[in-house]
Structures are given as structure tokens and as C-alpha cells.
Design brief:
Elements (H helix, E strand, L loop, with lengths): L2 E2 L9 E4 L18 E4 L3 H14 L6 E2 L2 H6 L13 H10 L6 H37 L6 H24 L4 H23 L3 H21 L2 H17 L7
Antiparallel strand pairs: 1-4, 2-3
Length: about 240
């Protein structure tokens, strides 16, 4: 309810102060006798006094407006819901509703796994290609473009399938066990190929074994990967293999 009150015209009581003689100028002139008016009460206190006087005189507000009168005058009001109310909870629930079926969710999850696997498939397939090229160059072999294209066309889907399933079951204890075992086998096999096998066997098996070894190291947890590397290193030194070219 809006209230307008009449404010009395009484002036506040003022006190006069005369400047002291200490304010004389340098030439000995007498200070000005002009008085300074200082109010004796704060405006808030005077407002309370005026309100008390108006109440004693029996004067009510000049205009008394009700809520209906304000609405009739065209004043609009906006309702604000309190924090933590049921209305807010209902709105949040509507926003979080998902109309997709289980089949659509499964399809979306499969595509997410597919694209996550592609992020690893591309670099690891190029890793295989690089190892294939370096292995041939190390034995002074210079195959043509179709040789590399044929090997890459076989390696790309193979690497993609391996990465897809190792990414899906990355937290599985079975994968941790078999992944560690595969990493140890591939690592020891690659070291044996470099030290003991003929160049034809190295050309055929080296790039694939090296790619699979690095892939398992990347996909395994850090503790399992360190365990596999420790076993491979211990085996290499125990067999007298050359680990560093």
C-alpha cells in the first residue's frame, strides 16, 4: 500500500557559531562576522519527529491506494518464485527429460565409441606405415608404392578393430591382464627379431609387432604398462639381448 504524508513546514532549530579570532589574515584584518548555521539534528531524526507530530494531530495519508486500485491503474506485478520451491524443481525435471528410446541411446553410444577409436586409429596406422618404411630402408630395400598401399590397407582395419575393443573395455580387469601379457610377448618378440632373426622375418613381422607393442603400452594403465616394460627389460638383459641400437 502506497502512502503519501504531508510534511510540516517547521524549520529545524539552528545554532549560530561565531568564528574565533584565530582566523585573522596576515595583515591583521578582523574576521568576518557572518554566522554559520549548523542543524542540531540529523534529517532522519527530524523526519521521525514530523511523523510523530502528524500522528498526534490525527492526520492520515493523503492518498490511500489498495492493491486492486493499483491493478486497475495499469500497474503490473511479476511473481518471483522462492528459491528451492517445487516450481523450480519441476522446471528442472522437464529440462532433463529425454524422449529418446533405448535403441537410439545405444546407437549414439556406439558412434561415440567409433569416433573415439578413430582418434587412435589414424595415428597408430601411420605408426605402422612409418615402421614399415624404416624397416625396409634399414635393409636397403626400396619397394614400390603399391607394396606400402597393400600393407596399409590391411593394417588400417586391423588396428581400428583392436583399438575399438580395447577402448570399450579399457577399465576391464580381463583386458588389464591380457593386455599386459600381450605387451610382454610383443616386446620380447620385437627384441628377439632385431637381435636374432633374419631380415626377411624382420620385414614381415617387425612393423606389426612394434605397432601392437606400442598400442598396448598406450592403452594399458600406467602401473600395468610399467610392469610390462620392467619384465621386458629384465628378460632382455638376462638373455644378453641388445636393447639399444
Amino acid at each position: 500500500m502506497a502512502k503519501l504524508e504531508e510534511v510540516p513546514d517547521d524549520e529545524p532549530v539552528l545554532r549560530h557559531r561565531v568564528p574565533s579570532a584565530a582566523g585573522k589574515g596576515k595583515k591583521g584584518k578582523a574576521p568576518s562576522t557572518k554566522t554559520v548555521k549548523i542543524p542540531l539534528a540529523q534529517p532522519s531524526a527530524k523526519a521521525a519527529e514530523f511523523a510523530a507530530r502528524a500522528g498526534k494531530a490525527g492526520k492520515g495519508p493523503l492518498v490511500d491506494l489498495d492493491l486492486d486500485d493499483l491493478k486497475a491503474a495499469g500497474v503490473t506485478f511479476t511473481e518471483v518464485a522462492a528459491e528451492g520451491s517445487d516450481a523450480d524443481d519441476g522446471d528442472d525435471g522437464d529440462d532433463e527429460e529425454d524422449d529418446r528410446t533405448d535403441e537410439e541411446r545405444a546407437t549414439e553410444a556406439w558412434w561415440d565409441e567409433f569416433f573415439d577409436g578413430m582418434l587412435y586409429t589414424v595415428p597408430f596406422s601411420f605408426l605402422y606405415m612409418m615402421l614399415d618404411i624404416l624397416t625396409n630402408l634399414s635393409y636397403n630395400q626400396h619397394p614400390d608404392f603399391y607394396y606400402y598401399l597393400q600393407n596399409y590397407s590391411v593394417a588400417l582395419p586391423t588396428v581400428g578393430i583392436i583399438i575399438f575393443y580395447t577402448t570399450r573395455y579399457a577399465k576391464s580387469l580381463w583386458w588389464h591382464f591380457f593386455g599386459t601379457l600381450i605387451s610382454i610377448v610383443c616386446g620380447t618378440r620385437l627384441i628377439y627379431l632385431v637381435n636374432k632373426a633374419s631380415y626377411i622375418v624382420v620385414l614381415r613381422q617387425g612393423p606389426a609387432v612394434g605397432t601392437l607393442w606400442i598400442l598396448t603400452i598406450v592403452q594399458l594403465p600406467l602401473s600395468r604398462a610399467m610392469l610390462a616394460l620392467a619384465v621386458i627389460t629384465a628378460w632382455g638383459y638376462s638373455q644378453g639381448m641388445k636393447l639399444i641400437p
